[in-house]
Amino acid sequence: MAKEKKLVEAITPMDEDFAKWYTDVVKNAELIEYSGIKGCMILRPNGYAIWENIQKELDRRFKETGVENVYMPMFIPESLLQREKEHVEGFAPEVAWVTHGGNEELTERLCVRPTSETLFCDLYSNIVQSYRDLPKVYNQWCSVVRWEKTTRPFLRTAEFLWQEGHTAHATAEEAEERTIQMLNVYADFCEEVLAIPLLKGRKTDKEKFAGAKATYTIEAMMHDGKALQSGTSHNFGDGFAQAFGIQYTDKDNSLKYVHQTSWGMSTRIIGAIIMVHGDDSGLVLPPRIAPTQAVVIPIAAHKEGVLDEARKLKYVIEAAGIRVKLDDSDKSPGWKFSEQEIVGIPARIEIGPKDIEAGQCVIVRRDNREKTVVAIADAAAELQRVLDEEQKDMFERAKKHLYDNLFEAKDYETFKDTIANKPGFVKAMWCGELECELKIKEDTTATSRCMPFEQEQISDVCVCCGKPAKKMVYWGKAY
Amino acid sequence: MAKEKKLVEAITPMDEDFAKWYTDVVKNAELIEYSGIKGCMILRPNGYAIWENIQKELDRRFKETGVENVYMPMFIPESLLQREKEHVEGFAPEVAWVTHGGNEELTERLCVRPTSETLFCDLYSNIVQSYRDLPKVYNQWCSVVRWEKTTRPFLRTAEFLWQEGHTAHATAEEAEERTIQMLNVYADFCEEVLAIPLLKGRKTDKEKFAGAKATYTIEAMMHDGKALQSGTSHNFGDGFAQAFGIQYTDKDNSLKYVHQTSWGMSTRIIGAIIMVHGDDSGLVLPPRIAPTQAVVIPIAAHKEGVLDEARKLKYVIEAAGIRVKLDDSDKSPGWKFSEQEIVGIPARIEIGPKDIEAGQCVIVRRDNREKTVVAIADAAAELQRVLDEEQKDMFERAKKHLYDNLFEAKDYETFKDTIANKPGFVKAMWCGELECELKIKEDTTATSRCMPFEQEQISDVCVCCGKPAKKMVYWGKAY
User: Fold this and answer.
1) Disruptive mutation site among B33, B37, B149 for chain A (greatest number of A CBs within 10 Å)
2) pTM attached to this predicted model
3) Label partner for A187 (CA 20 to 30 A): which of A344, A402, B282, B296?
4) Domains of chain A and any CATH numbers
5) DSSP class per residue in A338-367
């Protein structure tokens, strides 16, 4: 019973210490284990299975838009990384360097990829010759390394898993179209599958990707009101193409530079799932992404017929295409309920001797603990209905949280006061100058999250300096 | 037309120069591209799609046996790698070392994983306490690095993709059972999906994995008679458990060491697919693994109705669950046929004005170019039948090649003569001594491939030294 007690007590309440709550959930749900290497985490089966589902769903959506997967080397020669000036300045300070192979010192240092723009550019410069070779719409699933000083599971780690898409196009228009298309793929995926509502927009120059002409982003709001950048899509114009000499012969026989994009989503998004949906009992997984969507828990399993009936129920539900498990271990039902809640399985089905006698079972939702008594014969269909409702309610709840905490400020005092006292984002006008972004960060620790596609004219002047405003910006503290 | 000519001439005939044929096929089928880093290759869409199908099929088979996927860090601290003596001796000479993170020198060197036994052991020592925590049957899909001096696409590269399974069990019996079970998963997969027949057996001590108690292997025979080790499964006993202190409390409250296994299959297997099935026109992919199983090629596509009919045909075939493409580009049909043959698409469907008039189309198999005229209405069903037959015939052909080139030798002169003059393997008896293995390698360059599970008593004495024989061994030159 000692361990049972520990399970329940182990999670710090969110309102007491959100950061502590987060690491407690990550550890107790057995999503990760710390490794012996600072900042590198082990993705345990519960954590990796979420990533597998994300991969499966995103990969299908990518391929529907014509994406082809490839695999690039994990090493980048130092000279190649240095080919594009802004890019190397952005990444060099945080890369890991391989200096020796076997017992020999290498003639040129290799960095472990922090991102693979340079490798894809090198490839495209070799395989793109004619307009017939375009577009190239490649993607890879891999791990990347960024030598971070302070790390937190999923949110910031020295090594993380992601996908990175890299495309080359004949025209600037096509590249811009692909950049926005992939941002929308991410946004739809997050909203439909992860039940995470988003704000979409463009990053300011200060916040954009090293070497990009424009970076677009989807920003999610966590339970504590902070932002998590959940996916980005970059338009490089022909900057990289010029640095790497990626040219093609067009139909009119003229030599032109290609236009490029890149876009990525990483295991960071699992941090968003946790911080948008979790509660004081643990993880709450949206049904559409949950590795296990429901668990059948027999009550008084030792009584005749109970286990048999529970087993039958599991098979019927499985046959209906729902990812279901049966917990027939010798733990107590209460213990099993706690486990289901900690790991965030969206529904449990309780079935005991009295239920069987009445020809029924009880479905309990994870998110709001709502119980539904259903006939055993209807269990699979009813469960599917409950899961669909739960998915929808989770999204609506998160959306309400986002819009309830989206404040507005017309003057700097209101702005600072809102950032300081209200968890959430602030909409405010901006003059477009880096100076104001830096001052706002200095005064409030908030950064510009994005310039939303749907602009509103809140006022005519910059909230910070009072000069004429150019853009409405969402500001917030961020992970 | 210049390019068209190049396509046809680019592949060196197998019998002229098998090694050159191999690299020509790999390059012309656009499976890989060389990268700027020596020994690191780029897997292009045609190559990576094969690996994706291998992953999908193997992963499903793994999970049916209870395997759970995880992700471990790509770095191993030097001290951790050194924990098991034999293991470090086997791998240290060929690892890449990270010495700097960002601008700082690391206090301890990290190697890029050549394999992850040490990381899994470290994890298991933390998460295994009781018999209730066993077995642990984990696997990961990742890339590993071994700093090879001479490299060849797929067969030997500095970085390659693989899966590595690592398990921990309460008893020695269970570990041995799992070792053999996974070997059989590999063997069944190779035979059923890749149409590659295998010899199964145990490695000699000289050839076994660094740190293993026993290594089991599946060995395939390439077209040139050389062996390719296609998958291995290792039983570690409790050696690693002792080195890493992985103990559990058993039901009787006594403290025991776990028993471990590991098993892996890599992108090397793609080399086997190429060298078992390929021909002078290029790649020949078994239908069950081919990313594209059939391509519809319109003849005289400019004539009215042809493209429409070709498109309809493609949709009907797709709806039947066959992975099909339509080649409606403006290239000539002959050019399209060549491309289909180079990349190894198992079947093409030709459809032209005369076919349409007659309500028929022509299915052409890739492996033997056999043509079947079928009614358009039956095309999908007939194509499936043709693909099934092709898969079966490819396996039978490869099996005949294997057994036709499996020779026997009772004395050393016959042995040496056979290895020198006949491409294939030689069955011969062995005394069990390392000395004879070394002498055979020195005299013939052949190595022991495996001690097959099904032993035959060819003679009573070792083929090399004449002392009493202990085992029958398959010997051969190997990739």
Assistant:
1) B37
2) 0.96
3) A344
4) 9-277 (3.30.930.10), 294-387 (3.40.50.800), 406-476 (3.30.110.30)
5) HHHHHHT-SEEEEE-HHHHHHTEEEEEETT
